[in-house]
From TrEMBL:
Species this protein is from: Brevibacterium permense
Pfam families registered for this protein in UniProt: Hydrolase_3 (PF08282)
Leader sequence residues: none
Entry keywords, A to Z: Hydrolase
Lineage start: Bacteria, Bacillati, Actinomycetota, Actinomycetes, Micrococcales
InterPro entries with a match to the protein in the record: Cof, HAD-like_sf, HAD-SF_hydro_IIB, HAD_sf
One Gene Ontology term of the molecular function aspect: hydrolase activity
Matching PROSITE patterns: COF_1
Protein name: Cof-type HAD-IIB family hydrolase
């Protein structure tokens, strides 16, 4: 029998839940498994109470189809670490922040000066592109390019960088100073050897904040769930940020609370406890 969620880690009694924001991978599901029935039920419980449930993810739009198949009544999704707002119901882009061609060339050049072995992948509103030697688990989904100049005319919304290491934190520490001021660097897995670059000033928190303004939801009313460093700004910004039990230590350190691991339905168990004790 599972231990009940401790009241000590729930929001204060005066917390007025107005919106739930959640990362996907490592938070709602793990290793591309389906979202659990318990989690889907908790999402629907929020919606039935008039509380929007917003996905905030690093995934590109084309990787949202399995989510839409399970929860077709979700509305707007913040994806690509804040670069794009996507309507999952109509499968259309609502808003996008892009990286212009000159900045893109500056980013790749700055990284390659110190790391000539660097290889890049590029997410656009028209799909994915990769350097010829970029290693990816989904090569058939990307088009190979020989030079970044071939992306002229494409709406680039995210750049991924790979070096000769699988340590994402170490990579981030190397690359972040090189691109500071031109884009925002983060990572979403500790050992996949990828650093993710978003347009300058764009984070999950920034775009979620804009979406909340659009929906008329105050920052203090937002509860957010996440597990990786690309969630840190969002959990820090939200009125109540919750780290998963499987989150990295750096994420747990800034969260207001830590729930169970994703495989133990941490989001569902925490939301149910909140809704039981904080009825709207």
């Amino acid at each position: 029998m599972r231990t009940p969620i401790s009241p000590d880690i729930l929001p204060p009694d005066d917390f007025d839940l107005g919106l739930v924001a959640s990362d996907i991978d490592g938070t709602l599901l793990l290793n591309w498994k389906p979202i659990s029935t318990a989690t889907i039920d908790a999402i629907h419980r929020c919606q039935d109470a008039g509380i929007p449930f917003v996905l905030v993810t690093g995934r590109p739009m084309r990787w949202l189809a399995p989510i839409a198949d399970q929860i077709p009544d979700l509305g707007r999704v913040v994806c690509l670490n804040g670069a794009v707002v996507y309507d999952i119901a109509t499968r259309s882009v609502v808003d996008a922040h892009t990286i212009d061609s000159q900045t893109l060339a500056e980013i790749t050049a700055a990284v390659r000066v110190d790391h000539p072995e660097a290889r890049f992948a590029y997410e656009t509103l028209n799909g994915g592109f990769i350097d010829r030697e970029f290693v990816t688990g989904r090569p058939r989904e990307a088009r190979i390019i020989g030079d970044v100049s071939e992306l002229a005319g494409e709406d680039v919304v995210k750049v991924l960088v790979r070096l000769e290491t699988s340590d994402s934190q170490a990579m981030h520490d190397l690359i972040d100073p090189l691109v500071d001021g031109t884009c925002h660097a983060s990572f979403s897995e500790p050992d996949n050897g990828l650093v993710e670059l978003a347009p300058h000033g764009i984070t999950k928190a920034k775009t979620l904040s804009d979406l909340c303004d659009h929906l008329g939801v105050a920052r203090a009313q937002v509860m957010a769930f996440g597990d990786m460093p690309n969630d840190i700004e969002m959990l820090s910004w939200a009125g109540h940020g919750v780290a998963m039990g499987n989150a990295l230590g750096s994420v747990k350190a800034i969260a207001a609370a830590v729930t169970d691991e994703v495989d133990d339905d941490g989001v569902a168990r925490y939301l149910d406890a909140v809704l039981d004790t904080h009825p709207n």
